[in-house]
Specification:
The complex is a heterodimer of chains A (261) and B (271). Chain A is an alpha/beta fold and 261 residues long. In chain A, 31% of the residues lie in helices and 25% in strands. Chain B is an all-alpha fold and 271 residues long. Chain B is built from 14 helices and no strands. Classes of the chains: A alpha/beta (261), B mainly alpha (271). At the A-B interface, strand 6 and helix 2 of A face helix 9 and helix 10 of B.
């Protein structure tokens, strides 16, 4: 499958729960092997978009294509690093168990892990600097280490597209730097990484593309083009402050009026 | 040694012991998912919800186990139906169906006069009344359930720990979730004879909760839980024989003692 360009194509998708539409008529194309930051105010629909991309939420309209084929025709080419709150940290699994789960569909659901699978897990653990924690319970780790465990799992899965929901929020500097390094490493292997973040400066300095959304697509393209004043004003309204040196600050305290309903 | 062997000279005790151990192991293994997925309330509800099935089977003079099995599967699927797409929250759906089924069961029973003895057996179990045929049925069903759990170890692990990963790996999560409910229902039915519907929930939760305190991986948790379930059954049955206590109660109380010991051990280790 590696000769096919890794590409994600989203055509006019709308996503929501019941009557309520969260994302309306979204279209964009992501070239293979690029690093994309998904940016928008709180409640803009970033997590919702990710849930739709892994097939957890049904589309109300439109289509998603991966390598030119509809979502679901590829077994496991999308990996997802969940937000911290989505995981039950008291579950009885070790770090190694968690990473091995990434191999499950390659192993086959009824078969045992081969020595290649075990080696792959070890490599992923070492790459994220947590090989010495392999036998610990996942709940015993620090927040940053837990995130690295899930990144190692995503690596072990050998995905074509990696989705990360807010990996830079509430983690230590080492984990943040390791995550960014991983993105670079993945790019060398032509893996597309789509990362949601609140950190606009990180988005503009460490990513190839930025997807700016607020219930709809506001802009998609190179960071310097997307972060134009009028786009930012459309997305964030008054909650954004651009400093003279170019540093952008978002006021996270209050969601815009339109979402309060 | 004699006191250990004496009860086993009776054939009904041999069958009772075997049935208790099988049920103890089965409940303990299914119980790990009950504990980890927060289904304790569901297990309890399931146990009571089979009452109308048993009552109907009794009225029609059919096999009580089959009536219970049909009711349990129906309840499991109905809960799945109501909670699909989050229309009704799971614990709400369980609460409604649990109460409705229990009421229906009691209503059916109240139309009969000679039911008192059998009712107490259904509620608290009658391990000494296990026939050879019952034993085969209990053994066969238990083996089938345990084999399914072993074969689906990885899918069940993933849907329990990380539903999002299950979606990215294209697992049929909805189907697996329903299958787990059916397995849970069948487990409750199998426990009907030994600990009864009132105490089945305890055998589902207590050994697994104890194993959760002592282990930190899923497979060892299942094994330790099964050991505790089996030991509780054996010890409980001997207590019941020598002190003339209802067997279901003796088994559950023994399991509770193990839990308390596990809890104290865990506390001391943390301190």
């Amino acid at each position: 499958m590696s000769h096919i360009p890794h590409r994600l194509e989203v055509q006019n998708i709308s996503i929501g729960y019941g009557e309520k539409v969260i994302l309306n008529d979204l279209s964009f194309q992501i070239p293979h092997g690029s690093r994309v930051a998904v940016v928008g105010p709180n409640g803009a629909g970033k997590s919702t978009l990710f849930k739709a991309l892994v097939g957890l939420l049904p589309l109300q309209g439109g289509q998603i294509f991966i390598h030119g084929e509809p979502l679901g025709s590829h077994q496991d080419c999308v990996a997802y690093v969940p937000q911290r709150e989505e995981v039950d940290w008291r579950f009885p699994v070790t770090v190694e168990d968690v990473v091995m789960m990434g191999r499950f569909s390659q192993i086959g659901w009824l078969k045992r892990a081969s020595s290649y699978d075990k080696q792959r897990v070890q490599t992923s653990l070492s790459q994220m600097g947590i090989a010495d924690l392999a036998q610990r319970s996942i709940g015993q780790l620090s927040g940053g280490q837990q995130q690295r465990a899930f990144l190692a799992r995503a690596l072990a899965q050998e995905p074509h597209i990696l989705l990360m929901d807010e990996p830079f929020t509430g983690v230590d500097v080492t984990t943040q730097e390791m995550t960014l390094k991983l993105l670079e490493h993945l790019q060398e292997h032509e893996v597309t990484a789509i990362v949601s973040t609140h950190d606009l400066n990180l988005a503009s300095s460490r990513f190839d593309y930025v997807l700016l959304i607020n219930h709809r697509l506001i802009a998609f393209g190179k960071p310097q083009d997307v972060f134009a004043k009028e786009n930012l004003a459309q997305a964030f309204g008054n909650s954004l402050l651009v400093m003279e040196n170019g540093v952008m600050l978002v006021d996270e305290c209050c969601p815009p009026e339109s979402e309060a309903k | 040694m004699n006191w250990l062997l004496e009860p086993l000279t009776y054939e009904f005790m041999q069958r009772g012991l075997l049935a208790s151990v099988i049920v103890g192991v089965l409940c303990a293994v299914m119980g790990t998912y009950v504990v980890l997925r927060g289904m304790a309330f569901l297990g309890d509800a399931m146990a009571h919800a089979i009452l109308p099935g048993v009552a109907i089977a009794y009225i029609l003079k059919g096999d009580l186990l089959i009536g219970a099995g049909a009711a349990a599967v129906a309840i499991a699927l109905t809960i799945g139906f109501f909670t699909k797409d989050g229309t009704v929250k799971e614990d709400t759906a369980i609460g409604i169906l649990f109460a409705a089924a229990l009421s229906l069961g009691v209503a059916l029973i109240s139309t009969m006069q000679t039911y008192a003895v059998d009712l107490s057996h259904i509620l608290f179990g009658n391990v000494l009344g296990v026939s050879a045929g019952d034993l085969w049925l209990i053994g066969g069903l238990s083996l089938a359930i345990l084999l399914t759990v072993a074969l689906l170890y990885k899918p069940f692990l993933v849907i329990s720990f990380d539903p999002v990963l299950a979606a990215t790996l294209r697992l049929p999560a909805e189907l697996l979730r329903n299958l787990m409910l059916v397995l849970l229902a069948l487990t409750v039915v199998v426990s009907l004879q030994t600990v009864g519907v009132s105490l089945a929930a305890a055998m589902l939760v207590t050994p697994a909760a104890t194993a959760y305190l002592l282990t930190r991986r899923l497979a060892p948790m299942m094994i330790v839980s099964a050991l505790i379930g089996a030991l509780s059954s054996v010890i409980g049955l001997y207590l019941s024989y020598y002190f003339n206590i209802v067997s279901g109660s003796a088994i559950v109380l023994t399991a509770t003692l193990f839990f308390l010991l596990g809890f104290i051990w865990k506390r001391l280790r943390k301190a």
